């Protein structure tokens, strides 16, 4: 972005296009400023997140795939994205709703992608879940430790690489070996996954995006609570 560009003078449409460019160029401060401008224009945090930030990152992803952008550039984009998300996080979490359940979530071993997972955390918090974010590159031991410490309702796993997604099965198989698999709802997500993969590894559901993760978590918890009540009254 040129130094003398006044973000306030841009229409919403041009500002969002400018944000896509700034995200592409990894301009953290410009992204932060633009997020504030859109908030000032009464955009919802969710619309800013999806239309400006996630869409901008999608464009980055296409050029990364096509060899036009490289890791150092994409890292700058990721930092700019995270800076925008940091402003929106408390706003999305500000629902004041009673906690509807607890989730631990982490990116699995060997994988350091965390933007999508962090987005899931934000949306789940916004929907009233308590979320314990285990970060990136988590071996099964980290999941087990967090389960013991936090007693969650839901275990979430994220993987963005075809080489790391099989590790999700290692985690689920370990839960099975310990006889605790059915004590939790297990949700998985990440760009290379699909429903068939989630079924094959024994997860409860594949979540295409953060909004689906929220809907799925609510639906599966409600079903689980329903069956517990049914057992209690039978
Ligand atoms: Co990476 N990378 N990357 N990368 N990177 C991908 C994933 C890739 C598809 C790019 C490409 O080639 N087109 C490709 C994977 C190919 C494959 O495996 N088939 C790839 C590669 C190859 C690599 C490296 C190997 C590159 C290299 O070193 N040569 C390397 C691996 C490092 C490692 O993990 N060991 C690498 C590194 C990096 C960076 C560090 C530079 C950076 C990550 C920075 C960070 O995350 N802090 C990076 C990025 C940014 C990407 C792309 C461009 C964008 C990912 C992203 O943030 N998307 C990505 C291309 C792409 O995906 N199109 C790519 C935006 C985000 C909002 O979407 O993560 O899909 P997403 O999350 C969504 C859903 O998937 C879902 O909800 C989210 C929100 O709606 N979801 C969940 C995700 N997790 C969930 C968990 C749930 C539920 C839903 O639990 C319940």
Spatial strand order of the main sheet: 2-1-3-4-5
What would you report as the Rg, rounded to the nearest angstrom? 19 Å
Unreliable stretches covering 5 or more consecutive residues: none
| Residues in helix, % | 55-70%
Number of strands: 5
Global shape: globular
Structural class: alpha/beta
The small molecules bound here are: CO-5-methoxybenzimidazolylcobamide
Strand content range: 5-15%
* Whole-number mean pLDDT: 92
The largest sheet is:
5 strands, parallel
The H-and-E topology, N to C, reads as HHHHEHEHEHEHEH
How far apart the termini lie comes to: 65 Å
Q: Counting H and I runs of at least 4 residues, what is the number of helices?
A: 9
Description of the structure:
The protein has 9 helices and 5 strands, in the order H-H-H-H-E-H-E-H-E-H-E-H-E-H. It is an alpha/beta fold. Strands 2-1-3-4-5 form a 5-stranded parallel β-sheet, sandwiched between helices. Helix 5 packs across helix 9. The longest helix is centred in the C-terminal third of the chain and has 24 residues. The chain is globular, with a radius of gyration of 19 Å. The N and C termini lie far apart (about 65 Å). The model has no long low-confidence stretch (mean pLDDT about 90). Bound molecules: CO-5-methoxybenzimidazolylcobamide (B1M). The site of CO-5-methoxybenzimidazolylcobamide has 37 residues, from helix 3, helix 4, helix 5, strand 3 and strand 4. The site of CO-5-methoxybenzimidazolylcobamide (B1M) has 37 residues, from helix 3, helix 4, helix 5, strand 3 and strand 4.
């Amino acid at each position: 972005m040129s130094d003398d560009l006044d973000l306030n003078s841009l229409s919403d449409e041009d500002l969002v296009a400018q944000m896509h460019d700034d995200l592409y160029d990894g301009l953290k401060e410009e992204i932060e400023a633009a997020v504030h401008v859109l908030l000032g224009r009464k955009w919802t945090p969710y619309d800013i997140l999806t239309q400006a930030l996630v869409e901008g990152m999608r464009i980055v992803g296409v050029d990364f795939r096509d060899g036009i952008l490289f890791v150092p550039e994409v890292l700058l984009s990721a930092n700019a994205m995270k800076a925008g998300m940091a402003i929106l996080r408390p706003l999305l979490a500000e629902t004041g709703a009673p906690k509807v359940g607890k989730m631990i979530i982490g990116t699995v071993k060997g994988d350091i992608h965390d933007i999508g997972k962090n987005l899931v955390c934000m949306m789940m918090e916004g929907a009233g879940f308590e979320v314990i974010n285990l970060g990136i590159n988590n071996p099964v031991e980290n999941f087990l430790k967090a389960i013991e410490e936090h007693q969650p309702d839901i275990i979430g796993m994220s993987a963005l690489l075809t080489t790391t997604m099989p590790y999700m099965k290692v985690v689920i198989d370990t839960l099975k070996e310990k006889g605790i698999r059915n004590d939790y709802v297990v949700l998985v997500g990440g760009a290379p996954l699909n429903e068939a993969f989630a079924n094959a590894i024994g997860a409860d559901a594949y979540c295409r995006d953060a909004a689906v993760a929220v809907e799925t978590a609510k639906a599966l918890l409600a079903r689980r609570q329903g069956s517990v009540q049914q057992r209690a009254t039978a």
